[in-house]
Specification:
The chain has helices spanning 6-17, 39-49, 75-84, 101-104, 118-127, 147-154, 193-200, 238-249, 261-270, 285-299, 315-327; strands at residues 2-3, 22-24, 31-35, 58-60, 89-94, 109-113, 131-133, 160-163, 174-177, 184-187, 205-206, 230-233, 255-259, 277-280, 305-309. It is α/β, with parallel strands linked by helices and 333 residues long. Strands 1-8-2-3-7-4-6-5-9-10-11 form an 11-stranded mixed β-sheet, with helices on both faces. Strands 12-15-13-14 form a 4-stranded parallel β-sheet, sandwiched between helices. Helix 8 packs across helix 9. It binds threonylcarbamoyladenylate and magnesium ion (MG).
């Protein structure tokens, strides 16, 4: 692990150009990067993460000028990138033949991202080649939002982790498909439908909110799951929460409750003398997003089951809920 600075970014870029893979911070989650033009390097990502081969990678660059090297950028795509990038938005564009199909899992499209994080862009601009990068976790595990989470999953498997700030968004970028007539959200994130519509002046479809099979392979797999079960309640019904905790106590000694301060207080009044680890969640969806994957990783070491109450109905709250539903295997109560 090396702290992000001009020198460590140079070293990391050297490794990338030599065909190695390197973990680096972004504002959303940590990424695991390889030279997107180097098929052997790309293969190393799939091995290190144990990632299914039919799940394509996002290509990261430091500036919009680099995008035309490997993707077709029409007027609307250019406008979208100018409006939102750098930012926590990934755009899916038609790919050029410069990008090997190992990166795009055989798709004729390529996902492109310019992170907001200055640390990420310092590394990317040293690389001079586009860097394809998934989140730097073992497949199925919660995404890494701290350098130590990357270390936990990938130590001994990669030569370098660039250690930066903890990620302040905390969930992955919004994925927006620009290859169909209507721009379509494939994965929700902090750049929400209404933010996109306001910025672009046209209506945007949110495929991720429709109950259909989505055209983004990553959405098919188990994801974001800690090693202990997560039981999710989305309506704040304290009676049900207490019942669930009682039921779990028949099988487990150590149970954690993640909820806002009001729900935590009300639950504490209702349970009698049973041990419960309490984590009071921040009051906003933004605050929850920033901490949730780190909390899952911390608590899986301390408890046998996590009961979580999340009832935020804001637009970004729904993006956070999209991740939580996967963490709990869609088992809500
Ligand atoms: O915030 C992020 O996007 C982070 C950081 C590291 O940049 N990266 C990330 O990568 O989350 P990953 O591999 O964990 O997720 C990539 C998502 C998957 O859902 C994948 O299916 C989708 O993007 N994707 C990639 N290329 C695509 C394409 N050509 N068409 C549709 N979906 C695509
Ligand atoms: Mg991921």
């Amino acid at each position: 692990m090396l702290a992000v600075c001009a020198e460590s970014c140079k070293l990391a870029a050297e490794l990338i150009k030599k065909g190695e893979i390197v973990a680096f911070p972004t504002e959303t989650v940590y990424g695991l990067g390889a030279n997107a033009y180097d098929t052997d390097a790309v293969a190393k990502i799939f091995v290190a993460k144990n990632r299914p081969h039919d799940n394509p990678l996002i290509v990261h660059v430091a500036t919009t000028e680099q995008v035309a090297e490997f993707a077709y950028v029409n007027e609307f795509a250019r406008k979208t990138m100018e409006t939102f990038l750098p930012g926590s938005l990934t755009v899916v564009l038609p790919k050029k033949s410069t990008i090997p199909s190992a990166v795009t899992a055989g798709f004729e499209t390529v996902a492109v991202r310019i992170p907001l994080s200055k640390e990420a862009r310092m590394f990317l601009s040293e690389c001079s080649v586009p860097v394809c990068a998934p989140s730097a976790n073992t497949s199925t595990r919660p995404s890494p939002t701290r350098a130590k989470d990357v270390f936990e999953d990938l130590q001994g498997k990669i030569p370098l982790i660039l250690c930066g700030k903890d990620c302040d968004v905390g969930i992955e970028s919004t994925v927006l498909d620009l290859t169909s007539d209507t721009p379509t959200i494939l994965r929700p994130g902090v750049v929400t439908k209404s933010v996109l519509e306001r910025g672009l002046g046209i209506s945007v479809r949110d495929f991720s909110a429709e109950n259909k099979k989505v055209n983004s392979p990553g959405l098919r797999y188990k994801h974001y799951a800690p090693s202990v079960p997560v039981l999710l309640n989305t309506n704040g019904d304290v009676v049900k929460v207490v019942e669930k905790i009682d039921e779990l106590h028949k099988s487990y000694d150590k149970i954690a409750l993640f909820a806002d301060s009001d729900v935590c207080d009300r639950v504490m009044h209702k349970i009698n003398g049973q041990e419960l680890l309490i984590e009071v969640l921040p009051p906003t969806a933004e605050g929850v997003a920033e901490r949730i994957f780190a909390l899952f990783r911390d608590y899986e070491k301390r408890c046998q089951a996590i009961v979580m109450v999340f009832e935020d109905k804001s637009e970004f709250g729904r993006s956070v809920l999209n991740r939580l539903m996967k963490s709990c295997g869609s088992h809500t109560f």
